[in-house]
Design goal:
The chain is an alpha/beta fold and 528 residues long. Helices cover 55% and strands 8% of the residues. α6 packs parallel to α7, α17 crosses α19 and α23 packs antiparallel against α24. It binds guanosine-5'-triphosphate (GTP). Keywords: Cytoplasm, Endoplasmic reticulum, GTP-binding, Hydrolase, Nucleotide-binding, Ribonucleoprotein, RNA-binding, Signal recognition particle.
Length: 528
């Protein structure tokens, strides 16, 4: 069972509980049976599933429960917490520090996704402002250096490797030495893999570790591996000092439960999850947001971090404009550019509460991204004067035709962009100023949800006014104008209970992307 399905099944079991007229031992047993079966079908280690069942059972005291006003909430919180425990070894993950020359070594079996993940991680920390270098110490697989070189070049990340040197230990040592000399903040060493756990691989890993003395060793594991994950993780743990885990290929049809269980075998935290072959397909992992996202409650912290990385609050001109309710073509270009920088639209939308991955079906994010890129070409063909205008200049047909010619599109495409700009402009006008919807919020509620999404009353999101309330929470958590402005743009309004939050967002997105079909499932306001 893939993780989306697992989340949906646990959700529906919890939902079924709320429909029970009496919540007694029998009802709790039925709930746990359903959850445990779902976990086992997702390849979660059987020992861990038993442990989860016992822990939840221990936390639910039926006598106390009968006096409790909200039994369902108590049970839901217990289940949520135990699901988090399942993927959280309780160890703070290691993070590189800027200004210190951090060395990270990647290990794992051949094809697990080491090389790909090295570059993804390098790009991630580059976005955080670190000076990152990649060392290819994989001399076992012909072509490994070429792969790393290509990936690194694409991401503009310096790399080190050799076509002639056959000794991986020497390459690793030399690469790390050079990057250290040049004061790199983070040096990532990719090592070889083998088809299976074998002595030669382990001996090589140990030699490299001895030579470069990594601050952290990252174990990369294929998410599709199933129950074999447990023994694989143990074998690696016994040989090298695994500090963190990256699980790859968690996109598509990976069951993932087996690899996730590896946390227990190594006692090391999962730090990232690979969700595709592209550079951006790396999700930071932490237990609570992961479980929250799996259960369709979104990943607020991931969304806030992604938005923070954009440093939108540094775009002062736009912020000033927005506050005044003014929205130029240049503002629109900057916003869309930011969205493009955040990575695939599907990923961003997947982080939003209420949007479980299955709701994204039919949402053609690639087509959306292509359309955004064509918009960028149109903006590039405009003069500064035109960009800083409200678009009325294009009532002049010659001007419109000139821009269409310059960007290789039809005049009607330029008109479509101008139409969307007008729509955005109307929303900005409505929301700007002190009367904007962001001024109305309930901080206590937001803080509670931010701290513990599992304890959230399922109706809370609805009460908060769906995505409108979400927006307020992001304001509370991020506390920065850039996030608000971004969210304002992306999501549109949504005030009050059931306010058209998601509905508006759907409308906005589909307008932006030119009416992508298949998003009709999004309800207004909170979901569940
Ligand atoms: N779908 C998907 N594919 C991935 C992911 N991570 C890696 N891959 C693919 O998995 C394949 C193997 O990845 P590599 O990075 O070459 O694996 P490796 O562990 O470095 O392999 P060796 O160098 O031979 O040890 C490649 O085709 C990658 O594109 C992921 O998160 N999702």
């Amino acid at each position: 069972m893939v993780l989306n399905e697992l989340g949906a099944r646990i959700n529906s079991a919890l939902h079924a509980l709320s429909k029970e007229p009496v919540i007694d031992e029998k009802a709790v047993d039925a709930l746990l049976r359903e959850i445990c079966t779902a976990l086992l079908e997702s390849d979660v280690n059987v020992r861990l599933v038993q442990q989860l069942r016992q822990n939840v059972r221990k936390r639910i005291n039926m006598d106390e429960l009968s006096a409790s006003a909200n039994k369902r909430k108590v049970i839901q919180t217990a289940v949520f917490d135990e699901l988090c425990t399942l993927v959280d070894p309780g160890v703070q993950p290691w993070v590189p520090r800027k200004g210190k020359q951090n060395v990270v070594m990647f290990v794992g079996l051949q094809g697990s996704g080491k090389t790909t993940s090295c570059t993804k991680l390098a790009a991630y920390y580059k976005r955080k402002g670190m000076k990152v270098g990649l060392v290819c110490a994989d001399t076992f697989r012909a072509g490994a250096f070429d792969q790393l070189r290509q990936n690194a070049s694409r991401a503009h990340i310096p790399y080190y490797g050799s076509y002639t040197e056959a000794d991986p230990v020497l390459i690793a040592m030399e690469g790390v030495k050079q990057f250290k000399k040049d004061k790199f903040d983070l040096i990532i060493v990719d090592t070889s893999g083998r088809h299976k756990q074998e002595m030669e691989l382990f001996a090589e890993m140990q030699q490299i570790a001895k030579a470069v003395r990594p601050d952290n060793t990252v174990f990369v594991m294929d998410g599709t591996i199933g129950q074999a994950a447990d023994s694989q993780a143990r074998a690696f743990k016994e040989t090298v000092d695994i500090g963190s885990i990256i699980i790859t290929k968690m996109d598509g049809h990976a069951k993932g439960g087996g690899a996730i269980s590896a946390v227990a075998a190594t006692g090391s935290p999962i730090i990232f999850i690979g969700t595709g072959e592209h550079m951006h397909d790396l999700d930071k992992f932490s237990a609570r947001p992961f479980v929250s996202k799996m259960l369709g409650m979104g990943d607020i912290s991931g969304l806030v971090e992604t938005v923070q990385d954009l440093q939108l609050d540094k775009n002062e001109d736009m912020i000033k404009n927005l506050a005044k309710g003014v929205f130029t073509l240049k503002d629109m270009r900057d916003q869309l550019q930011s969205i493009l920088k955040m990575g695939p639209l599907s990923k961003i939308m997947g982080m939003m509460p209420g949007m479980s991955p299955d709701m994204m079906q039919g949402f053609d994010a690639e087509e959306g991204t292509r359309r955004l890129r064509s918009y960028m070409c149109i903006f590039d063909s405009m003069t500064e004067n035109e960009l800083t205008s409200d678009g009325k200049l294009f009532d002049d047909e010659n001007r419109l035709k000139r821009v269409a010619r310059g960007s290789g599109v039809r005049p009607v495409d330029v008109q479509a962009l101008l139409h969307q700009h007008r729509q955005f402009g109307q929303i900005v006008k409505k929301m700007g100023g002190p009367e904007g919807m962001l001024s109305k919020m309930n901080p206590a509620m937001m803080q509670q949800m931010a701290k513990n999404p599992g304890a959230m009353n399922p109706n809370m999101l609805k009460q908060m006014g769906g995505m409108g309330g979400m927006q307020k929470m992001i304001q509370q958590m991020g506390g920065m104008s850039g996030v608000q402005n971004m969210m304002k743009q992306m999501m549109g309004g949504g005030d009050g209970p059931g306010g058209g939050g998601l509905g508006n967002m759907q409308e906005m997105m589909s307008q932006m992307m030119g009416g992508m079909g298949g998003m009709g499932g999004f309800g207004g306001g909170g979901r569940r």
